[in-house]
Amino acid sequence: MFNFQIKTYREGLNPSKPHFYILSRGNNTGKPLETPCTNCFLVETETEEARNFHYWLSYALWQTDYFRPYLIGSVIPFIHTKTMRNILQAATNKALKDRRAYLEGLALIQDFEKKAQILKKQTELIQQVKKAIFYKILLE
Description:
Number of strands: 4
Number of helices: 3
Strand order of the largest sheet: 1-4-2-3
Structural class: alpha+beta
Largest sheet: 4 strands, antiparallel
Helix content: 40-55%
Strand content: 5-15%
Radius of gyration: 19 Å
């Protein structure tokens, strides 16, 4: 039902199907991305629903450090394409077994993610206000 393909991203690759990217190197290996970077995989799906399903599944796996035991390399850790495919396939099968519970958990995660973005923006605004106050006190 939710089929996907994982490829190593190359510059100039223009996928036509719904897709997202997954970081393949470093301590944030497995982090899903909207825009490509040098060290990432391209994940293509058949439908937008499948894309969202796999994007948030990858996000959940990344948040729980699920990929960490599979990393190899002594200086810059990385994961093989085949290993990433196997992990995503196993997680997909598990999530589809109890799809209702997965979708409920996903809704909660997405809600918290929106709230985290709001808090991040508020923190940035507070920093700007603090700078303005210090500027007014010290430099005027």
